[in-house]
Amino acid sequence: MAWKIHKGDKLNPYSYAQTLQELMLKKAISNHFDLEKELLCRDVRIKPLTLFFIDNIESYRNKEGHLRKLLESFIRVEVTQRLQTEKHIFYRRYLEKTLEEVSLTHGAYFSKDNTDKDEAIEKEINEILHDKQTLLSLDNPRRFIFSKWTLREGWDNPNVFQICKLRSSGSEISKLQEVGRGLRLPVNEYGHRVKNESFYLNYFVDFTESNFIDSLISEINKKSKVISVDQIKEKLEDDLIRKIVEKYHLEENQLLQKLTVDDKIIDFSRKFLLDGFQRVKMLYPLAFDGIDSDRIRKSNQMRSKVRIRSEKYNELKSLWEKLNEKVILEYRFNNEDEFISLLSNFFKIQKEQFQVEQLNEKKLIVAIENGKAIYLEENSVLDSKMIAISTMRYSDFLKELSKVIYVNLNSLHKAIINSGIDLNAYMNATTIRLIKQAFNKFLLYNAIDKFSINYKKITNSIHPTKLTDKKGNILTEINASDIGMLFTNEGVANSYLFDELYYDSLLEKENIKTTLKEVIVFTKIPRNSIKIPLVGGSTYSPDFAYILNFENGNKQLNFIVETKNIDSKEVLRHEELQKIRHAEEFFKGEVKIHFKTQFSNNNIAKLIQEAYYGMKD
């Protein structure tokens, strides 16, 4: 099928679903009427108000404004539906009065209104700002109030039971100040405070303020001096990442992928999303043993730096410089059709993973327990609704997807057509993110078997490195944390490059202590110093580099080791096996480098013996 995209083409246009703002508005209105029924069907009635903060004033003030028309249509639908079943005499009349003139159910105050001479608006503003008695009268149908942000300094109304933010705060202001507009003891129909009951303020925010509750609780506890604010982390810090990686034997990239894309616990700047810190503590409890203690500083002799035995570097130099060469990774296909076929197969396999963009509601209740602010999550299977909130046109979807997976538009379109899948329901940002994530893994899993790869040197510039300065001279010391997060006073092997024992696992510790006569020099490879590019965009970092000497110096071998704290190769996931195969490809070349994976039941002596006999073959 011949097909080309030209500038300005509009392909498969798709009507937009409800926006997030519309759904929040609808949810707040529906929730208001639930509250209203509960509070107005009591013996002594309480009239609830809902406060909306909006950005676009004209969309409300203009009689034909989108927000105003939407608001009134939602109210009509909601009231009409409730009248079909409502039997309470007073409340039924109240709802009927609402339908008589829906425009009277809402009002607003904006600072620009001070210059407005419209008499009706002036009356509305006066009622909202100054006449609480009229606003809370049961003869008055007004119960929805709109404002740009926080109305006027000092404004409040005791019967605000809901606040819905249809706009962001725009700045980091106090969360207590925000909710304070509604944290009041309500008054009943006779103007008396209701003191003998507990009432909740419903506060609606969208995903851009997913940390709202965490921030609010932190602020409450800080002001009440109950708990140190430092105990509620806002960002995933490097120390915690290292702890998790060490305790659970993960790759750093693998961990960050899980926390950002898979589990949505942190954003791409590593800030915790809603209850993210607590979720990390639940997922990785071992990493929190002594997280704030001096556990890794258990020796008074432990320093922040570790010394390099500079006299040993000359033997390691050639291998070290080879490892630090700058390379690019080439994907090699025989032709474009071969790639399109692979991409089509990917789409067929991944179809079940595509998602409709949906609104997921989460209800969190702030409470005080043992003198400390906490939150409780309340969910209902029946109340949980999955609603599509946005889509993209096919052309826009194709262009955005093309950018993130680095595939030209024509090839991408052909692959989608060839796969036979219907993308109409899945054209959204979530699907693009999922495709990017899945496609990178798909390429990694199929590399070498379905297409070849090649590492190509791109520059002669090597230094500075983690061990050398910009002139290539060996450093005297480096950061100890780059070698290991744990320390022991035990001695190191004579051939080891560093003079102290820093390590990240028991397997590493044993390697560093083991003296073998065949080893001229070896080193733990400093953290993040060697990153082998992998298909799909991630990297791979080996752990040890050895220079081996056999047959009285007649044969020498460069030996690279990757440690794995598991028993055997059979336990390795497909992803890890592919990373090892990439490393084997990377170490092919002019300088012969032998690469080996060490499992927890292998000692380093056995691996070196295998390397020697492999070299003889």
TrEMBL record:
Pfam families: RE_endonuc. The keyword Nucleus does not apply. InterPro entries: P-loop_NTPase, RE_endonuc_C. Its EC number is 3.1.21.5. It comes from the Bacteria. It is an enzyme of class 3 (hydrolase). This is Type III restriction-modification system EcoPI enzyme res.
